[in-house]
Amino acid sequence: MVPFADSSALAEATLRFLSDDAFLLETRRKAYAYATPMFWPNVGRQYLDLFNRVVRASQGKRDDRSQKATVAPIHRGQLSLLN
């Protein structure tokens, strides 16, 4: 990382990446390790785990859902706003 708006530091870092293969490979390895949890399969698995926990937690609360929800009526003027 380089300080914000420091063109000299950015130039030095760029030259180091271009000239130091070991540094480049190590930085790639660290960047990949950092980003792995953010890959879609991992994020999707986390969402699925969350949804499963919500379902399990709500299974004991089925009596609460016996009350019907009410929805406000839709007027034609409101639909024209969607275009």
Structure description:
The chain starts with 6 loop residues before the first helix and ends with a helix. It is mainly alpha-helical and 83 residues long. The protein contains four helices and no strands. The model has no long low-confidence stretch (mean pLDDT 84).
Rg measurement, Å: 26 Å
Termini separation comes to 46 Å
Question: What's the tally of helices?
Answer: 4
The averaged pLDDT comes out at 84
Class from secondary-structure proportions: mainly alpha
Beta-strand content estimate? under 5%
The oligomeric state of the chains shown is single chain
Q: N-to-C SSE series?
A: HHHH
Largest sheet: none
Q: Segments where pLDDT lies below 50 for 5+ residues? A: none
Helix content: 55-70%
Shape: elongated
Instruction: Give the tally of β-strands.
Output: 0
Secondary structure: elements and pairs:
Elements: H1 7-19, H2 21-35, H3 40-58, H4 76-80
Which features characterize this protein?
83 residues; mainly alpha; 4 helices
What's the short version?
The protein is built from four helices and no strands.
